[in-house]
Design goal:
Blueprint (H helix, E strand, L loop, with lengths): L11 E4 L7 H5 L5 E6 L3 H4 L2 H11 L3 E5 L8 H13 L4 E6 L1 H13 L6 H7 L11 E5 L11 E6 L4 E6 L8 E4 L9 H19 L7 H22 L4 H14 L13 H13 L3 H16 L4 H12 L8 H19 L15 H6 L13 H11 L1
Parallel strand pairs: 1-8, 2-3, 2-4, 4-5, 5-8
Antiparallel strand pairs: 6-7
Helix pairs in contact: 4-5, 7-8, 7-9, 7-11, 8-9, 8-12, 10-11, 11-13, 11-15, 12-13
Bound molecules: 5,6-dihydroxy-NADP (NZQ) and zinc ion.
Amino acid sequence: MIGDFTYENPTVLHFGKDAVSSLGGEVSKYGRKVLLVYGGGSIKRNGVYDDVMAQLSLCGADVTELSGVMPNPTYEKLLEGAGVAREHDVDFILGVGGGSVVDYCKAVAASAWCEEDPWEKYYVRMEEPSCRVIPVGCVLTMVGTGSEMNGGAVITNVEKGLKVGKVFGPALFPRFAILNPEYTFTVPVYQMVAGIFDVMSHIMEQYFSGEDDNTSDYIAEGLMRSLIRSSVAAVKDPHDYEARSNIMWTATWALNTLIGMGKTEDWEVHMIGQAVGAHTDATHGMTLSAVSLPYYRHIKPYGLKKFVRFAENVWDVDAAGMSDDNIADKGLAALKAWMIEIGVVMDLSSLGVTADMLDAIADSTFLLNGGYKILSREEVIDILKESL
Ligand code: NZQ
Ligand code: ZN
């Protein structure tokens, strides 16, 4: 481990088929007035809403509902939610849904009592809240983002053409997360696979940084191996509980800060993917899969040793008699074969991107310095072109 760090994670996890039975007890720790937040209604169709309401009534909660949180939640919707939370002076915000709902709850929790423009404060100046923050908890129904155990709160500002991820401190991490793999069985296959690639990308974007012998990288390799195995099983049979539960648990540990400890972390694929998302509203995980192979081919020469390790330790590439470059290529070829096998989107055209959009996407791409190569704008354009 090279970097110094402080590790803290306050989220309590309740995992398994009966996890929701802990919900009432958890919510009642924070007060009676609960803002129940959800998305477009999947929770009403699959019975999760009924399970949640039964628990909330058991603990005597006074519930205000806020629905219609869209995938890639917008700044406009954030302002609406902040207004509702303030008007009802809620004690607690419970998100029931995927990463969009959970991210949104954190942004609302930080914005309800914020006296400044939350976009400027959190998404431009990247400050922590200086106002009262409402505690948040969640019942997760879609796996991928890790939002259930982290401070991430990604918001899209349609007017500005920006999709920005604010990472809040532990005060905004969910106080608890209810993780029942069965709740994810009704997720459409396209979304399930997008979530799986999102998890892979989170792990890779932490793994592909630094050259030290870092415990975090060994954990990352184990998580990737489990994800690859379980994802193939889940695609064959989406009701395979063992596979879905492994994927859920892997997703949580992929982005709850653990495997980033002592590392600089890359995150450039997410920066490009988020810029694509800002201009297309495409599904998050697919924006990452569409640009990943061109990106990794591009940075491979700058982090060759790690690409060799990736090939050998994650994909079991037999390195005998091969050059480092060839071994690294075999690793990327194995990644590509797995992506095709599980069925992720492999190019930007499939997400509605056309050549005349590339300049605007490059303009919306933040350039970071934690990976093996700081990209120039021209390199972003090259990667986008290759991804088309
Ligand atoms: O709106 P509903 O009805 O809930 O439908 C959702 C939505 O249409 C549906 N869905 C969720 N659970 C379901 C279900 N449908 C049937 N059955 C279920 N059990 O799935 C669709 C996608 O949901 P969404 O929440 O948008 O997906 P995801 O979990 O991938 O979240 C994506 C958002 O999270 C951000 C992304 O940028 C994007 O805005 N991220 C958050 C991160 C974080 N907090 O750290 C990191 C990630 O890198 C990511 O950027
Ligand atoms: Zn992601």
